[in-house]
Amino acid sequence: MAGAQDARTGKTRLRGTRVQGKKVFITGGAQGLGACFGRMLADEGAQVALTDVNLDGAEATAAAINEKHPGAAIALKHDVVSKDDWSRALEEAARRMDGISVLINNAGVGSFGTIETETWENWRRVQDIDVDSIFIGTQLAMPYLKDSQPASIINISSVAGMIADGMMLSYNTAKAAVWMMTKSIALHCARSGYDVRCNSVHPVFTRTPIIDPIVALGGGGEEGEKRLSRQIPMRRLGDPEDVGYCVVYLASDESRFVTASEFKIDGGITAQ
Ligand SMILES: NC(=O)c1ccc[n+]([C@@H]2O[C@H](COP(=O)([O-])OP(=O)(O)OC[C@H]3O[C@@H](n4cnc5c(N)ncnc54)[C@H](O)[C@@H]3O)[C@@H](O)[C@H]2O)c1
């Protein structure tokens, strides 16, 4: 078996088996959290399809994974607001991986704006990318997931879906909708007798390009990160791997009795 680097210790170890045989479809897989999920899931034995509007980025991430684990990753061009793109990407991923057993709805955009400054166009863009895409995509993915039971849907929401900020009107609203949509999907699947689970993950500020504008507001660089960290009881930002460990658990059969739940990866911020 190929050696894999442990995300936490940096040590090389044999490829893990926690999600061996899982076929994972990850939206927004070119960079940030999605790319990290792809790497960590492949390290634990999964096959991953990384989809993104940024095909070059998705291809680069897939190439790095395949260097460690040959054949473990594919990259697909996919805009999550397009129903046609969803149909095409799901069909191709299922054909090339021989099924889809895990769907990670991760693609998303951040946004600033108050009730007085937000524009209708930006509000619509955020709801389209962060919420409506999950409805469209999960509905289209259901037949594939039902064919590959036990299956798992993992929706990446945010602590911003649980605690509000006057500046984040559209984002707060979108991420709260993802939280509740998750529960409705989970209950439908459970009561229909499907072994298809659905859970949401709620990270706090985590070091990916999406937080660059917020870090910049605090002066940028280390100082900007330090300022942001002051809001978090554990006094640091998240690393993508902090969220990845939760995602690996939810993708695996270790979480086989877990559905309709929310997982806060937030250094304690929502407890205040
Ligand atoms: N990093 C954080 O602090 C944080 C905290 C809470 C929640 N989140 C959520 O995590 C998810 C991933 O964010 P990230 O931090 O990795 O951000 P990121 O900006 O680094 O990555 C987002 C990815 O989504 C892709 N994307 C954007 N619009 C798309 C579209 N229409 N179709 C397909 N792909 C699209 C981008 O190209 C990019 O590769 C998002 O849903 C975000 O809201 C992030």
Can you walk me through this structure?
This protein has 272 residues and is an alpha/beta fold. It has two domains: 214 residues, Rossmann fold, CATH 3.40.50; 29 residues, no CATH class. Helix content is 44%, strand content 16%. The chain is built from eight helices and nine strands. The strands form two sheets. Strands 5-4-3-6-7-8-9 form a seven-stranded parallel beta sheet, sandwiched between helices. The chain is globular, with a radius of gyration of 18 Å. The termini are far apart. The mean pLDDT is 96. The site of nicotinamide-adenine-dinucleotide (NAD) has 29 residues, from helix 1.
What's the helix and strand layout?
Elements: E1 3-5, E2 12-14, E3 23-27, H1 32-43, E4 47-52, H2 55-68, E5 73-77, H3 83-97, E6 102-105, H4 120-147, E7 151-156, H5 169-191, E8 196-203, H6 212-217, H7 221-229, H8 240-251, E9 262-265
Parallel strand pairs: 3-4, 3-6, 4-5, 6-7, 7-8, 8-9
Antiparallel strand pairs: 1-2
The chain binds nicotinamide-adenine-dinucleotide.
How large a portion of the residues is in β-strands, by DSSP E? Answer: 15-25%
The whole-angstrom Rg is: 18 Å
Summarize the main sheet.
7 strands, parallel
Q: Mean pLDDT across all residues, rounded?
A: 96
CATH architecture of the largest domain: 3-Layer(aba) Sandwich
Global structural class: alpha/beta
Categorize the overall geometry.
Answer: globular
Output the CATH homologous superfamily of the largest domain.
NAD(P)-binding Rossmann-like Domain
The helicity comes to 40-55%
| CATH fold field value of the largest domain | Rossmann fold
- Count of beta strands: 9
Bound molecules: nicotinamide-adenine-dinucleotide
> In total, how many domains does the architecture comprise?
2
According to CATH, what is the class of the largest domain?
A: Alpha Beta
User: SSE order, as H and E?
Assistant: EEEHEHEHEHEHEHHHE
**Alpha carbon gap, first and last residue:** 45 Å
Taking strands numbered 1, 2, ... along the chain, how are they ordered across the largest sheet?
Answer: 5-4-3-6-7-8-9
